[in-house]
Specification:
This protein is mainly β. Helices cover 9% and strands 58% of the residues. The chain contains 3 helices and 14 strands. The strands form 2 sheets. The protein has a 12-stranded antiparallel β-barrel. A two-stranded antiparallel ribbon has the order 6-7. Strand 6 and strand 7 form a beta hairpin. The longest helix has 18 residues.
Length: 316
């Protein structure tokens, strides 16, 4: 699987550099990560603010159910996105924060979280061509969680994560290709990634690529991020992000993957059905396999019906 991700990274890098080579002779390119959806006509304003809030709630109950299952289950999930965009002549500065929180209560498993993520991105780009498709950019990305996390073996919890444990900080310089307002492809041949374990008990044990007792560790590698957001059918919108990181210093062929997918199916003005699918492969997270010391593809999917409220977009 890691080799597939590596070949994908190589093909993307090669393909887009070749395609954009003529443009690069007279221009360079731009930045990373997530695309903030913008209007085609961005004239007449310097600052733009907006976002989205959603909340999903699902409940189930069984009584004398022969097939078995939980007598009661309750799931609540919330998502919030807020962005601030600044543009002036050839300068663009994007800031965006995503917060995911989820909770599940059931008769068999008790109460525990099923979603917990904090993701902040700030990136600066300078437009290098007349068409506004290539930018030279710098980026900083911070990703962590709020609450303690556990893995469960035979319903017995094992403490594995907490606030700032781990936390991922990416500092990257590279080129961003934006063929339209929906897609952004950022390519960086030189990226610095810090992995932080602030919790002492987790730091003493090590893990996540951090040596035992060190508290943090730096990696240098190549980074690619793709972001796409669009209305793909009537009343159906999609927002996706995929990050690929190859560590030059250790097993560069084992490419780390972080991918999020969110589909929203609009029911009326405020309510919608949502489906999310997250995929993570981190070669330094070795908590899986028969001996619980191997990396593995982590997957998470959530579906629900709930409240969806776009935050008012403001321009100035």
């Amino acid at each position: 699987m890691s080799r597939i991700f590596l070949w994908l990274a190589i093909m993307l890098t090669t393909g887009f550099i070749v395609k954009g080579q003529d443009n690069v002779v007279q221009a360079l390119k731009r930045e990373i990560n997530r695309t903030i959806k913008k209007d085609n006509d961005t004239t007449g304003w310097n600052w733009k603010r907006g976002g989205l809030f959603s909340f999903n709630l699902a409940q189930g109950s069984l009584s004398n159910w022969a097939s078995g299952g939980d007598n009661f289950s309750l799931t609540a999930n919330g998502y919030m996105n807020y962005f601030i965009l600044y543009k002036y002549k050839r300068h663009f500065w994007d800031n965006s924060i995503d917060v995911n929180l989820g909770y599940i209560q059931s008769t068999s498993l008790g109460s525990r979280k099923n979603d917990d993520r904090l993701d902040y991105l700030s990136k600066y780009g300078y437009k290098m061509d007349s068409l506004g498709k290539w930018y030279v950019s710098t980026l900083i990305n911070f990703r962590s969680q709020f609450f303690d996390g556990y893995t469960f073996n035979n319903n017995q919890p094992t403490f594995t994560s907490s606030l700032l444990s781990p936390a991922y900080i990416i500092l990257s310089a590279g080129f961003d290709y934006k063929p339209d307002q929906y897609l952004s492809i950022f390519i960086s041949p030189l990226t610095s990634r810090w992995i932080v374990l602030a919790n002492k008990s987790l730091s003493d044990k090590g893990g996540y690529g951090v040596p035992a007792g060190a508290g943090n560790f730096n990696q240098i590698g190549a980074f690619i991020t793709l972001n796409y957001s669009n209305t793909i059918a009537k009343n159906i919108t999609y927002k996706g992000k995929m990050d690929l990181f190859s560590n030059y210093q250790s097993r560069p062929q084992n490419v780390d993957l972080f991918m999020t997918n969110l589909f929203s199916f609009k029911i009326n003005k405020f309510f919608s059905a949502t489906y999310s699918l997250d995929l993570i492969y981190d070669d330094d997270v070795r908590l899986f396999g028969p001996s619980k010391n191997s990396p593995g593809l982590q997957t998470k999917s959530l579906i629900g019906i709930g409240f969806l409220k776009p935050l008012n977009t403001k321009r100035s």
